[in-house]
Amino acid sequence: MSGDAEALAAFAYELGLLKRIRRSGWWHAGVRDPESVAEHTMRVAQLAALIAAEEGADPARASFLALWHDTQETRTGDLPHTAAAYLTKPDPRRITADQTASLPERSRELIRAAVAEYESRQTHEARCAKDADRLEMLLQAVEYRDAGVRRVDGWIESAHGGLTTETARRMADAALTVSPLSWRDR
Amino acid sequence: MSGDAEALAAFAYELGLLKRIRRSGWWHAGVRDPESVAEHTMRVAQLAALIAAEEGADPARASFLALWHDTQETRTGDLPHTAAAYLTKPDPRRITADQTASLPERSRELIRAAVAEYESRQTHEARCAKDADRLEMLLQAVEYRDAGVRRVDGWIESAHGGLTTETARRMADAALTVSPLSWRDR
Amino acid sequence: MSGDAEALAAFAYELGLLKRIRRSGWWHAGVRDPESVAEHTMRVAQLAALIAAEEGADPARASFLALWHDTQETRTGDLPHTAAAYLTKPDPRRITADQTASLPERSRELIRAAVAEYESRQTHEARCAKDADRLEMLLQAVEYRDAGVRRVDGWIESAHGGLTTETARRMADAALTVSPLSWRDR
Amino acid sequence: MSGDAEALAAFAYELGLLKRIRRSGWWHAGVRDPESVAEHTMRVAQLAALIAAEEGADPARASFLALWHDTQETRTGDLPHTAAAYLTKPDPRRITADQTASLPERSRELIRAAVAEYESRQTHEARCAKDADRLEMLLQAVEYRDAGVRRVDGWIESAHGGLTTETARRMADAALTVSPLSWRDR
Amino acid sequence: MSGDAEALAAFAYELGLLKRIRRSGWWHAGVRDPESVAEHTMRVAQLAALIAAEEGADPARASFLALWHDTQETRTGDLPHTAAAYLTKPDPRRITADQTASLPERSRELIRAAVAEYESRQTHEARCAKDADRLEMLLQAVEYRDAGVRRVDGWIESAHGGLTTETARRMADAALTVSPLSWRDR
Amino acid sequence: MSGDAEALAAFAYELGLLKRIRRSGWWHAGVRDPESVAEHTMRVAQLAALIAAEEGADPARASFLALWHDTQETRTGDLPHTAAAYLTKPDPRRITADQTASLPERSRELIRAAVAEYESRQTHEARCAKDADRLEMLLQAVEYRDAGVRRVDGWIESAHGGLTTETARRMADAALTVSPLSWRDR
To answer: Is F77 left (phi over 0), alpha (psi -120 to 50) or beta?
Structure first.
C-alpha cells in the first residue's frame, strides 16, 4: 500500500491548499481579507445536511457531495463570475479525474462519483448540496454586511434567486430577519 | 415552519463562528495567524472519507461525524491542551443538545446522533473520523514547518501516536516523506 | 542565578503568547481579525492609571494589577462568556501559582500578590484596574463600530453596566459622544 | 468634570492607535505582519517588573515607566533606525506634553513625570524599563526566528549589546538557549 | 558589471520593503489592516497616466514620476500628518541620493531625475503625478467607507482640496457618485 | 466630460481590486497571506525601468508597459500555472478592450497600446518589462525563503530560466547572493 499511501498523502496536501485560497468574489465586494474556500466548504456541507434532513433527502449524502464541490479550485483557483465572459470554465469532473488518478480504487471512485452526482444536479441530494452552496454565500454576505461591508445586495439577491428547495428558501428568508447573534440570546 | 426556519438560520449563523475561531494550539507553536476551526474541519471530513474508504467503513458517515466534531467550540472556544489541568472539558453532547434544542426534530436528532456516535468511539466510522482529526493536525504541522515554523515536532508526534487505523498510520508515514507540492509534479 | 534566569526567560516566552491570542468575544461580534490579549492589556493598564489618578488611588499600583489580569490565558485561552454555562472558570490564582512556581522568590511573590489583589477586588486599586478592563472593552467596541461592525451594543452595555468608579463612568459616557479622532483636531 | 472626562476619553482613543501601529523594524527583517506597538509594550512592562524585582528596584514603578515609553508614536509612527540619518527624532517629552495638555492635572502630571523619568535614564527603575524594552525585542526576534524568519541576528545583537542590568543580561543569555515552548513541558 | 548588478539587486530588495510598509494614515482612521505603500503606488502610477492623457501631458512620464514618489519611505517609514508638528520631513531628494549612490550611472541618474522633477512640481507631468497621489487616497477612502469605515471624510476632503488639474477634480467628483462596483454592471 | 469622468472613475475602482487580489502561486508554495497583484506590479514597473536603463531601452516606456501587464486580473483573477491544463487563458488584449471601452479616447488608446505592445514582446521595452515580471517573482521567492518558506526553488528556477536580457540575468544572479538587508549596511 506504500504507493497508495503516498498518493493519498499527496492528495491530502493538495486539499490543504483550499485552506489558503480566498473566495475571490468577496474581493469584488470590497472585502480585503475574505474567507477561504475551506471555510466556505465546511458550512456548505453542514447546511446541506440540514436542508436534506428537512427535505426528506439523505443528509450524509448531501453533505458528502458538498464536501467536494469546490475541490477542483486547487488547480484553477476560485474563478470569479466576471471570468465567465473570457474563458470556458473547465468541467469539474475532468479536474477531479486528474486529482484522483493515482489514488487507490475505492477512494478514487468514491470522490469521482460524488463530484459527478453533484455536477449532474439529478438527485435530491445534489440539489440540496447546491442550495447549501448558495445559502452559505447569502449567510456570509449578511455577516459581512454586519461587519460593515455595504455592497452585498447583489450577492444576497443572486444567492436567493438560485435556491430550488423550499427549506433553503425559508432559511434564506429567516436569515434576512434573524440576527446573526440570536443564538447567544436564547 | 417559520419558527423552524428561524431556528435553522440562527444555528447556521452560530456555525459561521467556526470560520473566525482560530485553532489555539498553533499559537502555542508560534504561529501568529493560524487556520480557523472551519478550515481544519473541512479537511478532517475529507480525510475521514478517504480513511473510511480504505478501511472498508462507510465514507459518507465518517465524513458526516467529522463535520460536527468541533462545532461545540462556538460556545467554549478551542480549548488548548494546557487547559486540561485547570478545567473539566464539558461533554460535547451537552453543548450540542443546547445548540440544537430549537431545531426541527429531524435536524435536531440528526446532529445529536452524529455527535453522540463520534464521542462514543464505538463505531468504525467514529474511529476513522477521530483518526482524520489527528491526521489533519499532522499534515498542518508539516505545512507550517514548510512555511518556516520550527517547533512542530510535538504536534506531529502526538498526532501520530494517537492514530488507531492502519490507513491513517500509513498516510501519516507517507505525509512525513512526500513533499506537500508533489501533487503539482505529477 | 542560571536556573533563575532560565525560569524567568521561560516565563517571558509564555507571556509572549498573549501577543498571539485573540480576544474571543469579538469573533462573536463578527470581527474576523480582532485584537490580541496583549493589545487589550496595554490599554487596560494605561486606563487603570488614569482612573486611579482621578480617584485618588495609587496609579502605578492600579496599572500593575491590570498588567497581569489576563496572563492566565496562556494556559486556558480567552474563554468567551458563553463558556460559563458549560465549565467552571478556573481560579486565576491557581494558574498564576503554576506559572510562577519556578521563578526566583521576589518575582514569584510579586506576581502572585498582584493577581491575588486584583482578584479579591478589595482594594481601591483593584477596583480601578477592573473598571479599566471594562472601559477598555467599551472603547474597543466603539472603535470596531467606527470600523463598520454593527452589533456591538451588547458589549458596550455590559461594559458600562459593570463600572464601579465615578471616573470610569464619566469616561465611558464621554467616550460615547467624543469622536475617536478628536485628539487629532486639537 | 465633563471637560476632563472628554479629555481623558480622547486620550484613551489616541492610545488605542498603538494597537494598530506595527513595529516597523520587523518589516525590515522581512516580517510581513509584525506585532503592534501595544503588543510590544505589554511585555516590556511585564519584563520591567521582573528585572526590577531581581535588581532590587521598584517593580511597579519600572512597569509604569515602560507602559508609556512608546506612547508618543501615535503622533510620529514607529520611526525605524534607518530614519536617524534623515531626521531628528523629536523629544518624547514634548509630544507627551501635547498629548496630555487637556487632561486633568493629576493625570497630566502623572504621565509627564513617567515619561520624563524614563527618558532621563537617571533612576534604577528607568534603566530597568529601558532594559526591558531591549530584552523584549530580543525575545521577539527569537520568536520570529522560531517562526522561520532568518535574518534576526542584527536585532538580537543590538538588543543584547545595549543591556545594562545584570538581570536583563542573564535573562537574554537564557532566552537564547531556552526553548520558547519550555513553559509547556514543566 | 558584477558590482553594478549587486547594487541593483540590493536596491531591488530595498524597494521590496514598500510591499510591507502600511500607509500609516489609515491606522488613524481606524483601519486595522490597511494597504501597503506599494499597493498605493501602483494605482497612483496608473492614475497619473490617465490624468496626463486627458490633460495633454506625457502619460508615461507622469506614471514614471509617480512610481518613485514614496520610495524614500523604506528609510523613514510613512510619516503620518501628525508628525509634521514634531519633526522636519527630510528632503526626498537627499534620501534618493543615498539609495541610488551605488547604482550604475544610468539607473542612478534616471531615478534621481524623476524624484527631483516630482518634488519640484514644475512640470505638467509632476502636477499630474501629484494629483494622482491625492486622487488615489480619495478613492481608497471611499473604498474603506464602503467596507464600513466611518470617519473618512477628513481624508476625502483633504485629498479633494489639494487637486490642481481639471481632470483629477472631475474624476474625484465622479468617484464620489459612481459605485465602486459599477465596472461590473456594464 | 461628465460621462468620461465617470468612466475614468469606474475604471480606477476596477484597478483598485488589484490591491486585494493575492498572487495565487504563493498559496501553492505554502504562503498563507501572500502579496497582492498591486504589490507585485509596483516593483515590476520599477525593475523594468532599471533593466531598460542598463539595456539602453526607454525606461519610462518599459515601466509603463509593466504597469498594465496584470490589470486584466480584475476580471479573471490570478490564474495559477496549474490552470493551464484545464482552460485557455484569455487574450489580455480582449479583456483590456472591454475594460477601456467607455474611457475617453486618449486614455483608451493609451492603455490598449501598452497592453498590445507588452503582449507582442516585439520591442526592447516589452522584453525588459517581461523580464522585470520574472525577476520580481525571483526576488519575492528569496524574500519568502528568508521569512521561512522552504519550497521556493521551483519559483526561483522558473523565473531565472525565462530571463532574456543580460541585465536581468545579472541582477538575478546577484540577488541569489546578496542579502535582502544589504542596503541597510551600506
So the answer is: left
C-alpha count within 13 angstroms, C-beta hemisphere, residue C85: 16
- Closest chain E residue to D80, measured at CA: E76
User: Which residues lie below 8 Å from residue F84, measured CB to CB, with a gap of 6+?
Assistant: none
C-alpha distances in angstroms, B128 versus A14, B51, B110, D49, E46? 20, 6, 19, 50, 54
> Is there a contact between C12 and D43 if contact means CB atoms under 8 Å apart?
yes
Give bridge partners of residue B22 from the DSSP assignment.
B36
Nearest one of B131, B106, B117, B108 to B50, comparing CA atoms: B131
- Let me know: does A128 contact A57? Beta carbons within 8 Å: yes
| Terminal C-alpha separation, chain D | 51
List of E strands, C5-105: none
The 10s digit of each residue's pLDDT in D63-94 is 999 999 999 999 999 999 999 999 999 999 99
A89: which residues sit within 8 A by CB, 6+ positions away?
A79, A83, F87
Rounded to whole angstroms, the Cα distance separating E49 from F110 reads 9
| C-alpha distance from F66 to closest chain A C-alpha (Å) | 22
pLDDT at B186 over 80: no
Interchain pair C30, A143: CB under 8 A: yes
Q: Out of F4, F16, F139, whose CB is closest to E16? A: F139
Cβ-nearest to A106 among B18, B53, B64: B53
DSSP 3-state of C100: coil
Q: What single DSSP character describes residue E57?
A: S
- For residues D155 and A8, what is the distance between their CA atoms, to the nearest angstrom? 43
Rounded to whole angstroms, how far apart are CA atoms E46 and C36? 37
Q: How many CB atoms lie within 10 A of CB C122?
A: 11
Structure confidence by residue, pLDDT tens digits, B74-105: 999 999 999 999 999 999 999 999 999 999 99
Instruction: Look up residue F22 and give its DSSP letter.
Output: B
For chain F, the helix, strand and coil percentages under 3-state DSSP, each to the nearest 5: 70, 0, 30
The Cα F167–Cα F164 span in angstroms is 9
Query: What is this structure's pTM?
Result: 0.98
Record: contact B54-A2, CB cut-off 8 A: no
| Residues of D in Cβ contact (< 8 Å) with B147 | 148
DSSP states of B138-151: HHHHHHHHHTT---
| Contact assessment for residue F15 and residue E184, using Cβ atoms and an 8 Å cutoff | no
Contact E166, E184 (CB under 8 A): no
Question: Which chain C residues are Cβ-neighbours of B86 within 8 angstroms?
Answer: 75-76, 90, 94-95
Query: Which residue type occupies A21?
Result: I
Distance between CA E113 and CA F43 in Å, rounded?
A: 19
- Contact residues for E65 (Cβ-Cβ < 8 A; gap 6+): E48, E114, E117, E118, E125, E126, E129
- Cβ distance of A181 and C154 shorter than 8 Å: yes
Segment F101-105 shows an average pLDDT of 98
- Which residues of C25-165 form beta strands (DSSP E)? none
User: Which grid cell sits at F173?
Assistant: 544572479
Instruction: Output the CA–CA distances (angstroms, integers) from residue F127 to A13, F24, F167, in the order listed.
Output: 37, 24, 12
Q: Please indicate whether, in this complex, the C-beta atoms of D30 and F146 are within 8 angstroms of each other.
A: yes
* Alpha-helical runs (H) found in chain B: 2-16, 25-28, 37-55, 59-67, 73-76, 92-99, 105-120, 124-146, 153-161, 166-175, 182-185
